[in-house]
Specification:
- This is Actin-related protein 2/3 complex subunit 3.
- By secondary structure, the chain is mostly helical.
- It contains 5 helices and 2 strands; from the N terminus they run E-E-H-H-H-H-H.
- A two-stranded antiparallel sheet has the order 1-2.
- Helix 1 packs across helix 2 and helix 1 crosses helix 4.
- The longest helix is centred in the last third of the chain and has 26 residues.
- The two termini are about 30 Å apart.
- The relative contact order is 0.20.
């Protein structure tokens, strides 16, 4: 059974491209509302559910937050692939920063990994809002992922990096 997001209440949450812009425990500038530090956010869920959800080829969507969980699971898979050959935290951090500098496609653009998962943007403003939110959530996920993918002494955690070999939902990561 797939793990689903606990963020099912959409009251008062802004949406872009059919995706809720959920609050983040983040200091990174962006369109996401700030969450309380002691609460679980979508990034915490994505990282904690990753090792179970990555094995599934089908994902039954029960709430719009599940769409974001799918996207983040895929992003974590991409990030782990980039970290696979990095033997120290410093080299891994550099690889993650380079991943963060890449263009972020939105639905309807080439390179978006899940066509049909999110609705197409109705305007350029909505596309920019969604792109900025994805950029913010990816940066936050990257930072937190480094803390679990590497041990305190800066060496790789093989129990996390082993999952770089997995394909999520049969999507091939290049």
């Amino acid at each position: 059974m797939v793990y689903h997001s606990s963020f099912v209440d959409e009251e008062g949450i802004t949406k872009a491209c059919g995706c809720p812009l959920l609050p983040l425990k983040s200091h990174i500038k962006g369109p996401a509302p700030v969450s309380e530090q002691d609460k679980t956010d979508i990034v915490d869920e994505a990282i904690s559910f990753f090792r179970a959800n990555v094995f599934f080829t089908n994902f039954d969507i029960k709430s719009p937050a599940d769409k974001l969980l799918i996207y983040l699971t895929f992003y974590i898979n991409v990030a782990l692939k980039r970290l696979e050959g990095c033997r120290t935290l410093a080299v891994g951090t550099k690889a993650i920063i380079n991943l963060g500098l890449e263009d972020i496609p939105v639905p309807g653009e080439t390179g978006f990994p899940f066509p049909g998962l999110f609705s197409l943007p109705q305007s350029q403003d909505e596309a920019d809002l969604f792109r900025n939110y994805l950029k913010q959530v990816r940066e936050e996920t990257s930072g937190r992922l480094l803390s679990v993918a590497y041990r305190a002494n800066g060496t790789p955690n093989k129990w996390w990096l082993a999952f770089a070999k997995r394909k999520f939902m049969n999507v091939v990561v290049l």
